[in-house]
Design brief:
The protein is α/β, with parallel strands linked by helices and about 425 residues long. Helix content is about 45%, strand content about 15%.
Length: about 425
């Protein structure tokens, strides 16, 4: 039997590669590793790890980073078999916890628990498929299948966790009252303090990030963010009483997560919405977190007008960077601010929009309504036309969330 308890996190990559789950896992595991008085071993299993990944894991004080050496995006069906040889020598058993991330690695956590008697499976809920898959796919069947998969997995778990209040409530509804679900609140990011200022940039930049390809637009509403920003600029440039508005100071749109083949469409859409050419800074998804936070912290405001967002790390990161933000109301961040945080920031540095969405009849129609565009436009003007005051509010919000609620990664871990 092992001499010490152990936590083994199961993620597809070490770092933000493949999206938000891995970014969440990275910070969670790093802060588990530095828990005061830590008396457990800590491993992370990934599909593939570079030498740099191993070095970073060692610096982060992990007991080890275990790689399956697979060039893949998801765990194969025989992942438990492949891992058995890596793990058997460590004699897993009582006191060992397999940490699975929803359907990404939840089944693997369950299989490892069965292979090593006495160990336990803890699962984290990241995606409420039943809340958005029908709109995304135009078909209820995939949503029903994934919901059933999640129900089976989380009912079998020894510990059930969910990221933020929206996902906690969704999972509780899925499992029923007899299966308790605990909430995890991601820590506010800690970017380089040199990036964080108390004043907004001299020139106006709007920031958008995430999965911004066409296949995700119904849920992430990237095109709505573009059209809303264009509409805001069109409005302030056409009205004389906005002649001194900060929005008119060399405006630009900065987007991270736009595939190269979709970038010209963004420029065209922005020009059409604002009746003017607007400078753009567009790039695909990148793994350089320092560059990401530099871009975000250096922006005037951020946008996350999603139709649905289980939590909303982009908005949470903007708040951490003291950047005013527009968010969709069907998001975990909005629920957190509106509920446990008693409305903190809302109507000031955080403007919310109730995104209607739209089911298009053809590819030429948008995934949002005209009312959505107007709502985002108005929210952007409310922030941008008073950006100095809203920046001061954003600084207060970030400080209060840390001091009053201790929303740090150390507490999350």
């Amino acid at each position: 039997m092992p001499t010490r308890p152990c936590i083994v996190s199961l993620a597809t990559a070490w770092g933000p590669k493949f999206g938000g789950i891995n970014a969440f896992n990275l910070e969670l595991v790093r802060h588990l590793a530095i828990q005061p008085g830590r008396d457990f071993d800590l491993y992370c299993v990934v599909l593939q790890a570079s030498e740099q990944d191993h070095d970073d894991a060692n610096k982060s004080k992990l007991s080890g980073l275990i790689s399956l050496d697979l060039d893949a995006r998801e765990f194969p069906a025989d992942a438990a078999d492949r891992l058995h040889g890596h793990l058997a020598a460590l004699t897993p058993g009582a006191g060992w916890i397999w940490l699975g991330h929803d359907i990404t690695s939840g089944e693997l956590a369950r299989q490892l628990r069965e292979r090593f008697p006495g160990s336990q499976a803890a699962l984290i809920h990241h995606m409420a498929f039943g809340a958005y898959q029908d709109f995304k796919k135009g078909d209820s069947r995939p949503a029903a299948e994934k919901r059933e998969q999640q129900r089976r997995l989380f009912q079998s778990a020894d510990l059930r966790l969910a990221v933020g209040p929206l996902l906690q409530e969704q999972l509780q509804d899925l499992l029923g009252p007899k299966n308790h679900v605990d909430m995890l609140v991601p820590g506010l990011a800690d970017p380089n303090p040199d990036l964080l200022g108390d004043a907004p940039p001299n020139n106006f930049t709007a920031f958008v990030a995430g999965r911004l390809g066409e296949e995700d637009d119904r849920i992430k509403q990237g095109a709505l963010a573009v059209r809303g920003f264009g509409a805001a600029l069109g409005h302030v440039f056409s009205q004389e009483h906005y002649r001194l508005s900060p929005l008119r100071k060399s405006p630009s749109l900065r987007m991270r997560g736009v595939p190269e083949q979709g970038q010209n469409a963004v420029r065209t859409l922005l020009e059409a919405a604002g009746s003017r050419v607007v400078n753009c800074d567009l790039a695909p998804f990148g793994e350089d977190r320092e560059a990401y936070f530099r871009d975000l912290a250096g922006s005037s405001l951020a946008m996350m007008p999603s139709w649905h967002e289980g939590f909303g790390l982009v908005a949470w990161e903007a708040i951490a960077c003291r950047v005013p933000v527009v968010i969709g109301e069907q998001s975990g961040v909005y629920r957190l601010l509106h509920g446990p945080c008693q409305g903190m920031g809302l109507g000031r540095s955080v403007q919310s929009v109730a995104v209607e969405g739209h089911l298009p009849d053809n590819n030429s129609e948008p995934n949002h309504s005209q009312a959505d565009v107007e709502a985002v436009r108005d929210a952007l003007i409310a922030l941008g036309d008073h950006i100095k005051e809203r920046k001061a509010d954003a600084c207060d919000l970030a400080g209060n969330l840390r001091l009053r609620f201790d929303y740090t990664w150390q507490r999350c871990a």
